[in-house]
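note to self: dont lose this again. the chain is below, predicted strucutre after it. 129 aa total, dont forget to put it in the shared folder this time
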Amino acid sequence: MNKQDVDHITGKIIGAAISIHSTLGPGLLESAYRACVVKELEGCGLNVQSEVQLPIVYNGLRIDAGYRLDVVVQNTVVIEIKAIASVLPVHKAQLLSYLTLGAYPVGLLINFHVLRLKHGITRMVNNLK
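---
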């Protein structure tokens, strides 16, 4: 998938998240926002998976350590959804680890617990060509 395709997908995701946040506002649980993001993106005709298992590979062994990706879109973009007072560096590191472990090119960290959603979106890339 090329950069333009990825940018198009992330644009749709951000638009959907803004629409959801405009309608529901901050203050709900992450699971509620996740369910809405999935429905909204499916309505856009995108391939969306929720709660995707992410094993780790350590010394050649595949280990199920219980990691689950909130949402994966078009098997390309990982969405990590938060509803917290402030995003910490560890949350960004978590998303970057998910991108690396799953070999995904792009991730969006979306924190819905903000007054204006544009302040709650962080885009991260992992070897995007």
